[in-house]
Fold each of these.
Amino acid sequence: ALVGDTMLGRGVAEVLSDAAPTSLVASEVAELMQAADVTVLNLECCISDRGAPVSLPGKRFFFRAPPRAVEVLAHLGVDCVTLANNHALDFGEVALLDTFSHLEATGIAWVGAGEDPKRARAPVTLSVGGEEVTVVGFTDHPADYAAGPGRPGVAYVDLRAGAEPWVVEAAAYGAGCVLVTPHWGPNMATEPRSYVRAAAAELVAAGASIVAGHSAHVFHGVDGKVLYDLGDFLDDYRVDPAVRNDLGLLFLVDIDHGQPRRLEAVPLKLGYCRTELATGEDARWIRRRFRDACAAFGQDVADVGGRLVVAW
């Protein structure tokens, strides 16, 4: 199971102060994630009750979730998160280190951030039912959050200069399925930028089994084994009436002998700090948008019982 940007701070954190962690995601959605052998998402916040907002030119939004936010992830059956994004260090190094501790205590693996560049770039391999899934995470923004010698931070790559050798090597890592999950491109973009497409092609050529990106806050189409953007999953964001960042998808991928064979995309509706299955016109809008976005890459999509299916 793959979902995109999951933000548990700000308004979500306020809701969590009174509501049960299980109430943020409808049971029908939670059950789909729990049933998956492996569930991976982009955690777009730190988890801590320490630190202070960092000072960066132009930075407007700061996301910090309370320690009990890990209960949301545990309830959803999350096995691994990527922290390689533009909010992992919003409250400084101390909050990022707290995030590592809270995830570790809950038994949730993470990629894309670490105490130094080596740890930030390190993949994580999950073994389930005889299959191995290796997860690699990186972000193309911001450079200020990059891990350095003796400095905790994220796995940063300047994609406009091309994928760095360590990313290409990581994409070829392991004998099982290799999932590369980049945080790339600008917000509210309805299709991938040319440099994102170029980087995706490099990763697939290097051996990545599937590339699943995020950052735009809206889902993109499927291009071969590339899901350019998973869209949003849980947040308190203002809704753009044109690109509809309140409508998303839960992606379920079948893997056989290390290779993805089939994808099912389940339409989602994001309310204020709550996510549930999309219905009615919302579900129809998602189906139209996803089919059109996939068609732009020459990818056929079948509608099977309300789920959008891609066969590889």
Note: Helices lie at 10-16, 27-35, 70-75, 92-106, 117-121, 165-171, 194-206, 280-295.
Amino acid sequence: MPSSRGNPRVERIDAMMEEASRALVARDYFGCERLGANALDRAFGLLDYDRMARVLLPLEEARRQKRDLAFDTRRVIVVGDQLPSTRSLVAGCYLICPPLVGVDGRNLRESADRRRVPAIVIVREPTTREGLWPLVAVGPVTIRAKVAPPAAPLPPRPRAPRRRAKAPSPPESRRAGSAPPGEPVPSPEWFLAANEALGDAALAEVNPAAHPETRIEALMLRLAAHPDHEKLHQALADACRAAVRDPFTGRRRRVVKARQPT
């Protein structure tokens, strides 16, 4: 592990890691994620795998807490042909459906992070012939998985009554933009399962027999595309610890960013 003494770049990483830990204790999960992801990027650039492994723990926890805050709202928003405006974002689970695509989901997640709004964002592509929903997450790489759609249809939008009595709103769900009529509404639990399916698909693409440094690069790419998966963080931390025990020097790697641009 590179010494921080007299090394400004390493000292900066250590300072960011300390700030991230304080932010986590203070329940500033967005601040912890921002600091942790930045420290992870910097440590990766220095091939400092020990510091990468250490910063991944608070980073994973901050993202888990954000996901729990979104889940606990029990709010599901089905998004059709137009993303909600930044000011209208609320905490909850967002299903992005066609004709919107993976980059729209990424943009929505980044907007929610900038606004410090906890959100689980899942993007689905057109239903397959087998009746499955292809899910997609985009970043430096594209991740895809197929899952079963939820069975429940979207409740119809209530008609405005002729009298002044207030019309009831659909419980726990809403539409943004022009969601297709009858679009099934997933439960919050479905969103967690969809997140796991995407992350598991990403992990399946990484050769477990490859050298730790090769796995680190592959996992960094996939974590950048799908930051909302605990096992990706854990697999990356394991690979970092393995790289410390079995260093492989002289490799030239492309630059990979672990955090979303803000």
Note: The longest helix spans residues 49-72.
Amino acid sequence: MKHNLKDRVALVTGAGQGIGAAIAKRLSKAGASIVAVDVQSELAVSIAHEMTKAGGKALACCANVANKLEVEEAVSAAIEEFKRIDILVNNAGIIRDGWLANISETDWDSVLDVNLKGAFFLIQAVFPSMKENHYGKIINISSRAWLGNIGQAN
């Protein structure tokens, strides 16, 4: 099935590599303008350049999704560049593998901040644009890491 996303703008977190990069490329091939958000600036720039070189429109934004200010700045840059956000793909996620008895509070907090608060911050930041334009799709991705291993906490 072919999808036409011409004139749509998609913001993808964790877009610099792996599943996030594949999602960003696929949305770009379907015609969407892409906002490639990654905590590693060089990865975001590289993937945005790759999509632009292939004829798409892309903007690279460096942001830690666990930081509300950085999220708001990335969304503002996206709206400044493309005038709106139609699709949000919350793909960024981390794991800090650790046994229940040994996992640090810092590692626990890091996982919750990126995987949960990050998605919340992004949804909150893009919602006004989606509401104003009467259109929005939000895709929240998880991994099989939730299955975990015996004795692991996060």
Note: The longest strand covers residues 33-38.
Amino acid sequence: MIKVRKYFFSVVICVITYISFSQDLNSLKLALKNANHDTTRCLILKKMYSITTDVKLKMEFNSQRLNISEANLSNKNNENYNFFLKQKAASLGNMASMYKEQREVQLALEYNFKSLKLKEQILDKEGLTFSYNNIGIIYFDIGDIKKALEYYHKSLKMSEEIGNKKQIATCLINIGIIYNQQNNSAEAIECYQKSLKIYEEMDYKIGIISAYINIGNIYTNNKNYQKAFECFDKSIKVQEESGDKNGIATSLNNIGYIYQVQNDFNNAMGYYKKGLLICEETENNFTKAALLINIAYILQKQNKINEAYDYARRAFQLSIKLKMPEKIRDATSSLTNIYKKQNKYKEAFDMYELEIKMRDSINNQENQKATIKKQVQYTYEKKELETKVEQDKKDVIAKQKLKQKENERNYFIVGFGLVAILALFILRGYTQKQKANKIIIEQKYLVEQKQKEILDSIHYAKRIQTALLPSEKYIEKSFNKLRKS
């Protein structure tokens, strides 16, 4: 039996090792088909979910993993019960992430809380840090800053408890973003610098870059351009070490903006065009759109209207393709100014109208966030109220049971007291009776002794009397003798 168990675990370890290194979906499908145990199937499906970018496939793999977990949880005596509970929690967390991507906020929260509940049940502290953080992100996205901070701090506390440095730094970054949004620069920078220190200790380059860029953005907003430049320059060096070309383009755009706000248009243009070359190479369209808008702005300032039009037009077309209202707004604003300078008032008016529509669209998105926030608040306040009512019912029942126990205890005490008192009376009566009996026995003994003494005296007197007086026969005999003589 021991040999079989060792063999089984050896096979599982081999499968896990294979899964860890395999990035080929077809190979994993074959491994899934040949898997003989549900634990192995869950691990393979987890890997398949992580390496595919196809949303439908992700949903399919995650659903299979969830179904396998639930099937094994029907038997609470299953020796791998906690393993499958953890798999179910992870699957529900994945569902939440997919709903978040689809902007189904309420469903995303619902599945995150379902996942959270299971993780709390099995004390999966590492899993809890991610759930708390994910819930915090959703609340941040819908503008519920208070709730976002609450869950970020929960994640931070749990991460510190288990010593998960990477997650600690992530929480600090998220908290820093909120402080920055609330114009609390000092607190935000403190959070970012703490996260930077952790990332540097771990040599986690993506985190280092993120921290530098966030700190640089705060310094830019505070017009501390020298420190901002230093941060962005440091981020570029780390990005070059890690081969992060998209990140380099973003940092170049940030440095270009520092020169732009100081009206150093030549240096600004130099950084913008370097960044644009990288974006065209990597097809980083989001940063590319921003760079095209910035270049068009500088060319307008330099009165190079026709060149500015070319860049602004490219930015407009790319923004339409990206379906990004903010970028469309910025591109149409640039084109409105350019058309005015070209005396093309109809085109300028058309662009201005589109700019207004984009502003309204952005406002509507903000309103939609506010509406979602209210809906979420209503839903969870309702659930909290239902939970409170249910808890109140339980509390009333508990109080009733406690009162009943107290009454039973009091009745027992009173009953016990009465029995004790009765017992004392009985004992007292018995003691008194014993004493009376003892006195009677003693008196009887004395009487008997007196009687014995009297009887003894009588008997003694009788013996004397009997001894002194001759018997009748003797007297008669003696009398007859005298008569004969």
Note: Residues 313 and 418 are 101 Å apart (CA to CA).
